[in-house]
User: What shape does this take?
Amino acid sequence: MDSSKKLEDVVTVDVHAAKDLLISGHKYLDVRTTEEFQKGHIDNAQNIPYMFKTQEGRAKNPEFVTQVSALFKKDDPLVVGCNSGGRSLKACLDLLNSGYENVTDMGGGYSAWVDKGLAGDQPHEELKTTCKFRP
Assistant: This one.
């Protein structure tokens, strides 16, 4: 029997539920590019890009799981987010298939976090990054 996880196996929560998880002790893994992360991020976030921008387009970070393993244990409770939810969903799947046990995807990503007013006093428009799903 194949025990590999599928996208349907990833637990996704909205930003309010993600905030509650972070308050309760989950750690936040931001999988956006370094450039996106530097524009604004959730407090205490750790940044490990899932994808890199290259001349040919985006390419998956081949060291992603190894880099995550250097910062987090496989039983650490993690909330994973990106800009809009696509990369974080795939990152969660890779982590689950690598033996991580408590991984939650933050649906809508950092854009939803900002849109819901959870980014604090920072200027709203300056935190938004270009996204194909946003106007």
Summary: The domain at 10-122 is CATH 3.40.250.10 (Oxidized Rhodanese; domain 1). The longest strand covers residues 27-30.
